[in-house]
Design goal:
Layout (H helix, E strand, L loop, with lengths): L1 H31 L3 E17 L2 E16 L10 H7 L10 H28 L4 E4 L12 E6 L3 E5 L4 H4 L5 E7 L2 E2 L5 H6 L4 E8 L4 E7 L8 E3 L3 E6 L7 H27 L3 H5 L4 H11 L4 H19 L7 H14 L5 H28 L1 H7 L2
Antiparallel strand pairs: 1-2, 3-11, 4-11, 5-6, 5-10, 6-7, 6-8, 8-9
Helix pairs in contact: 1-3, 1-8, 3-6, 3-9, 3-10
Length: 381
Amino acid sequence: MDIIITILLLILVLGVLVFIHELGHFLAARIVGATVYEFALGYGPKLISKKYKGTLYSIRLLPLGGFVKILGDGDPGKKGEEELREKDIEGDLKNKSKPAQIFVMLAGVSMNILLAIVAYFVVLGFSNWKIDLSYEFEDFKPLGATIVRERDMDVPYQVLEDSLAESSGMPKEGYIKSINNEYVEYVEDISRLIEGNETVLVETCDMEEICNEYIVSVGDDGKIGIAIGSNYYISVDYSEHKALSGVSHLINNVRLIGRVFGGLFEEARETGDYSSLSGSVAGPVGMFFLIDYFKDLGWVPFIALVADLSLSLAFMNLLPIPALDGGRVFILVVEGVLRKDLDPKVEAIIINLSFILLMVFIVIVMIKDIANINELKSLFE
């Protein structure tokens, strides 16, 4: 039953993301005066369809996708396409200006970005305008926000075997309160307080909150033989700029994603091992595990996931691949610069070929995810 719920949620999330994307194309086409003769959710045979004001609205069998058929944006070789264009010159998208065509092509991506902004705003509003961040990004300079460090406990420690700390009689694990009578506020204070001393007076509290002091020798390496953990967390605070927090968080997310991928590329280039980089790309199988994990965390984290997926869909569609919106925009820009349209049949071949290659890539990603399904599961356990 749990698997069925996850599958239904996956279909719902994809349906919402695709609906918003295609709605963007639909509305933009209407704004520029182009004829839309079908707005479909899903692929394959029609399940439900209704024609209204010249547009056929349909829900199709396969729910993982959708499309908007705009006059002049179809396959020139398709039967009946040319006849429709000849009968409706005013509604032909190809007869609109290049900026108008680019506006229509980018409208889907724009709607996905807008959905992400709204979702991020809602998530931040229900999270006291703060989002937790990994420790490695403590030096990040966010737009429209500040990085805050919030202490949540004393510094936890564990005594290493055969160490100077063990010889001093310190409890095996607990929390460090002070060193040489100076309060330890954050984990990095410990090295500073130990440095330059032959012995230190360490006040600790064990797991039962019984506190004592211990005289501990300092080794030649400046250490006393304990493993320490962090006692604070990092968050991005948008409370001073709430109104624009959705936009700011989206921009900050893009910057953080760029930083992470930049690090992965650099590591792959230096080591020649691209497994971590390829592992960062996932298809429907990876999305299944994401949704299965987040559905149990509450609706706020789940909405945050939907926002991230909407942003990812926008990024993907901006890739300069002819079958995607970014590729279509690239073709339109080239045509605008050359002041000459590509041969419709050549354009159709380029777009269809790139679509086939894109489908092959998606299948390869799915095969990779299935082959590494145990590893994927372990990420969300």
